[in-house]
Design a protein that fits this description.
4 helices, mainly beta, disordered N terminus, about 35% strand
Amino acid sequence: MTVRNRGALAAMAAGVAALTVATLVACGSQPAENVGAEEANALATATATPPVTGDVPVATGDLPTGAKVIPPVRLVIPEIDVTATVNAVGINERTNEFEVPPSVDQIGWYRYGPGLEADAGSVVIAGHVDSAKQGKGAFFRLRELDKGDTLTATGRDGKERKYRVVAREEYAKTKIPLDRYFARDGEARLTLITCGGPFDAKARKYRDNIVVTAVPA
C-alpha cells in the first residue's frame, strides 16, 4: 500500500473524479462553526509520532496482535437521514489516492487502520458529499452534525455499535492534521470525513475537508 500524505486524505474526502468531490457549491460554502476541537484533539495521544513513512497517513502504532479485525459494513446517522453501506477500501494503485466507492450513496472504511473491535485508534470512514452526475452523496449533510448527535456502525459480525459525536471541524485540505485522524493510538474513536468549503469550479473540487469525530456511546 502506498499513499501520499496530503494527497490521500484530500482525495479521500472525495468526489466526481477520483476523490475530489464536485458540484453543489452551496453545500459547503457557509460551514457551521467548529465545535469540540479541543475534545477531538485530546482523544489522540499527546505524544503522537510522525507517520511510519512519508507515504503512510497513520501515526506509528501496531494493530492488535492476533485480533480479528471487524470492518464496518453499515452506518446509520438518524440526525442527517443517512443509512449507508460501508465498503472496505484502500488506495488506487494508479492514482495513489484513497479510493472511496464510486457510488455516492456508499462510503468507504480505510482498511489499513483499526476496525470496530479496536480499543484504541481512529476508525476512518470517508464519503462523497455530492457528484455532478449522481447528485447528493451519503455525506452531503455531514456538516450539520453537532455534539451529542448519535450514530450506529454495524460490523461484519452483525453487532451494532453506538457512537456519540464530540466534534465537527473544517480544514483546508492542505492543513488537515492527517496523523491525528489516521492514528492507531489514543482513545477509540470513529472519524467521518467528506469535502466542504467553497467549490472551485475550475479545479472541480472543494477547498476543505469536514471531519466529524465520535466516541463509543
